[in-house]
Specification:
With 458 residues, the chain is an alpha/beta fold. 31% of the residues lie in helices and 21% in strands.
């Protein structure tokens, strides 16, 4: 048994871990690198293994940093199944084609306006590539053993991060390896709590917030305050939000605030085709949420859905202050870039960040107080208020990760800390070693290790 860490180490993007068991090769998650250019360039590098030699992909969930490389893997020769939960399959059917489409559009825009260094600029993959890759998806229900062949058994447990998010549990000859995936938060208003795991010989755990604790303030109080002061200035609230998960949680809080008349009666727009489709999936899969069907219907009709480009443009033409939820959450692409051009220079308005901002993204620059940001080859001044609602994160914080680890009855022989910026990963490693006395390691990009902890050169 060997592990090779092909992404999601030293960063929170590009999650890919190759698990080799005998002659079987399984890729756990298959994500895109995002953020800094040197990370994004890894998307163009060939994998150290021929995709045609990978037997199966197992996705923990549908976010692009865990699933967005699947179309390219298929394009480059992977012909095996992609196993995931039904919820992940439904969301990937939205996210992956949209990712391909946005890459095509960005390439076209770059070529049209000549701001790319590449001639011509090309997409990593197309919408058609993404649609083709979806034919490889096979669903696996939560909490049921699934035979992968060669004596390998897969079980997916609820992770609570988004609909369909799973812990990946793989057993072979009484040895068990657990991948936490993105660990959700206990007590989330709409998503289930993460399942408790009691045993693993080897554990791979995420550390997005491994060095931080989330603000314990009530998110609805904070959201109401931002909206009230922005409306008083006559400005709009622009919310870059992850299309899957965060947008739906925001709609829930806005629905509650509107019902309680705690915010001014501003129009609310959900301006992201992907977020609109994802909200429809949430509404259709109420059984995967904490909400009853009637509440689910009410929550996901609180906003006006602006699906077309014309409707999106009309938001900016409307002089009435409004609340605009638009993807992407780190302002790396999508319609939110066009809205930032309009609202970032407006001192009356607010840009409201609602989650983790990876280094090198526009969201991170805004959170760091940047006075201008680069969009479509031009510098855009930032005069709007920039605020953050960190408590809305769907990732467990350091204390919540430690509480989840506390369910283990015996220590894993080795715990690998991944999916974290260097400080977060190393802080969590030290805490696990000091408080739990577990053997723990932070792997580097392309590190290869056997299941007993033996390290090999990258």
């Amino acid at each position: 048994m060997r592990l090779t860490f092909l992404g999601g180490v030293g960063t929170v993007t590009g999650s890919k871990t190759l698990l080799e068991i005998g002659r079987k090769r399984l890729l756990i998650d298959c994500g895109l690198f995002q953020g800094f250019k040197q990370l994004r360039l890894r998307n163009w590098e060939p994998l150290p293994i021929d995709p045609s030699r990978i037997d199966a992909v197992i996705l923990s969930h549908a976010h692009l940093d865990h699933s967005g490389y699947v179309p390219l893997l298929v394009k480059n020769g992977f012909a095996g199944p992609v196993f995931c939960t039904p919820g992940t399959r439904d969301l990937a059917a939205i996210l992956l084609p949209d990712s391909g489409y946005l890459q095509e559009q960005d390439a076209l825009y770059a070529n049209r306006h000549g701001f790319s260094k590449h001639r011509p600029a090309l997409p990593l993959y197309t919408r058609e590539d993404a649609l083709r890759s979806l034919k490889r998806f096979r669903t696996v229900a939560f909490d049921r053993d699934f035979d992968l062949g060669d004596g390998i058994v897969l079980r997916l447990r609820v992770a609570g991060h988004i609909i369909g998010a799973a812990h990946v549990v793989i057993e072979h000859r009484k040895r068990r390896i657990v991948f936490s995936g993105d660990l959700g938060r206990p007590g989330h208003p709409i998503l289930p709590d993460p399942a408790a795991i009691e045993r693993a010989d080897v554990l791979v755990v995420e550390a997005t917030y491994g060095d931080r604790r989330h603000d314990r303030a009530d998110p609805e109080d904070a959201l109401a305050a931002v909206i009230a002061r922005t409306a008083k200035r006559g400005g709009s609230v622009l919310i870059p939000a992850f299309a899957v998960g965060r947008s739906q949680t925001l709609l829930y809080h806005l629905w509650r605030l509107k019902e309680a008349r705690r915010i001014p009666p501003l129009p609310i727009f959900l301006d992201s085709p992907m977020a609109i489709e994802a909200s429809r999936v949430f509404r259709a899969r109420a059984e995967d949420l904490k909400l009853d069907p009637a509440t689910c219907d009410a929550v996901y009709t609180v906003a006006r859905y602006t699906a077309s480009v014309e409707e999106s443009k009309s938001i900016e033409a409307n002089p009435v202050p409004s609340i605009i939820i638009s993807a992407s959450g780190m302002a790396t692409g999508g319609r939110v870039l066009h809205h930032l051009k309009t609202f970032a220079p407006d001192p009356r308005s607010t840009i409201l960040l609602t989650g983790f901002q990876a280094g090198g993204t526009r969201g991170a620059a805004l959170a760091g107080g940047a006075k201008e940001i680069k969009i479509h080859g031009a510098m855009v001044p930032v005069r709007a208020e920039v605020a953050s609602l960190d408590m809305l994160s769907a990732h467990a914080d350091a204390d919540e990760i430690m509480a989840w680890l506390g369910h283990f009855r015996t220590p894993p022989k080795m715990t690998y800390v991944v999916h974290g910026e260097p400080s977060a990963a190393d802080t969590l490693r030290k805490r696990i070693e000091d408080e739990l006395r577990w053997a723990c390691r932070v792997p580097a990009y392309r590190d290869r290790e056997t299941i007993d902890g033996t390290r090999h050169a990258a």
